[in-house]
Amino acid sequence: MTEARILPISPTITTPAIQYKVSMPHPESHLFEVSLSVRLEQITSSLLQTSKKLDLKMPVWTPGSYLIREYAKHLQDFCAYSENERPLPWQKLGKNHWQIETLGVSEVIVQYRIFANELTVRTNHLDSTHGYFNGAALFFYIPECDKNPIRIKVISPKSDWQVSTSLPKIPDTENTFDAEDFDTLVDSPFEIGSHQLYPFEVEGKKHQLAIWGKGNAEPEKLIPDIQKIIEVEAELFGGLPYEEYLFLLHISGKGFGGLEHKFSCTLNYPRFGFRNKEKADRFMQLVAHEFFHLWNVKRIRPKALEVFDYEQENYTSSLWFSEGTTSYYDLLIPLKAGIYDVKTFLKGLGKEITLLLTTIGRKVQPVSESSWDAWIKLYRRDANSNNCQISYYLKGAMISLLLDLLIREKYQNQRSLDDVMRQMWDEFGKSEIGFTPEQLKSVIEEVAELDLGEFFESYIHGVDELPFDEYLRPFGLRLKKEDNEWPDLGMNVVSENSKEIIKFVQHQGAAQLAGLDAGDELLAIDGFRVNADKLSDRLKDYQVGDVLEVTVFHQDELITHQVTLAHSSPSRYQVVPVKNPTAKQQENFAGWLGSSLEYIL
Ligand SMILES: [Zn+2]
Q1: pTM of the predicted model as reported, rounded to 2 decimal places
Q2: What separation in Å is there between the alpha carbon of 518 and the centre of ligand 1?
Q3: Which of 108, 120, 241, 320 is deepest in the core (most CB within 10 A)?
Q4: What one-character DSSP code corresponds to residue 25?
Q5: 326 alpha carbon to ligand 1 midpoint, in Å?
């Protein structure tokens, strides 16, 4: 934050050997101009000493978003020279690896530009209204020197632009910040612009909400709800493990997302998504999610993410916990914070269960494998994804629900998944020691005092159907299946540039069996034009067993297929109360959700 986390700095402390200067003299060009200075005698690297060469590498991904993003692809105009402005020879040794011959100079200065025109929480964006950057997408690290402190000076292009970041600002300087090491720099995004800053406190700790973009967000209404979320999560984990925290909120015409950090988070939300109650609730779930991550995944980290390897994929099978359990809590926390009621919570739960039970990939990919393959599957969806994949967010959240219910029922709500989170925090989070999948299982088993071998084999490493009814019943709830009134074609169609495009064809569904393909342009059903919006309406005129003619362009060839409707359309699921709940069921429900079961009867 701009005036935040000011560390006492004694004049005897030497300035870091690695210093960055970030400027943006022409923001409309989307180019950040970066200058790096490395004082060679001040850094110890055996590589550097023996080879007389300085290696610079740019990360290929950023923690929290498990996809190789090749940030170096946005780099241009690289040059290197000495403190006397003598050009230094350099070469590229790999896609993200530059090597400079140091020629005995004491200081190497490197300059380059980074094109920044991707407005997401995990990339860089610069235009005439603001600059936003993530360390992994802007800065080099020096192998063997990634633990060295780094100083960053930001040169703002306009006098009314301010700089917000969670890094501590050096007193009496203009926009100069220190990061204790490269990981900290990567974990501290910067917002530069004329954004509004709203300070508030929770439990004596300073917080700021920084808002860039125009829309219908009303900070005076958002902040009290954010405060409640912070309070509920602080109570769960036993306090707030920081002195100050920054919420960076981007509101814009498109996009939705969040990225967690230890002392901040970036949120991206549609500009008119704050007044409609349902959308406003969704925003608070996003806040609850990213804030929960400051414990779960930023400090309670899978072993594979204990030390980040910025050059390649970091494989873990535990994202069902790091992301899925966080997703379960992002539904639960706003309820506990009084932001929405138990009916909204159960409606949300029903939607998630529907999504899970209508994604046939759940029968193909175990959630532990979904986590492992995040790098090649979850973020790289294609026409077959729903046939062969299940999201570790979604299924991980539903497994967390089952584990919470399992523990709560056994201990009459005296224990819960909250105890698992607290134990993970005590054992791994506070000291930031990575946990293995076996250690995670042991902690859950210790809290539950149960052997969960079969549970893990069936639901985490296997693809058995999750037994929602069995786990919900002790809480007076059950799944209600609502069948759709129309038969199923087994395909999804969307309108794109005035064309109706088949996006997904279900494995062995009616459409696939008849020869329809993802990518086909849908033209007509039984000789009449049809569009994506009206497709289910049209199907209501048919019954299972009917044969209809579906006309498409397949690779520009006009084809009519005979499609036999074999099934009814996938059902919707709701979580509803059982008939005549017992006193025990009512007590369990109230202990879990803090509300009477009668309220939803
Ligand atoms: Zn997340």
Answers
A1: 0.95
A2: 30
A3: 320
A4: S
A5: 7
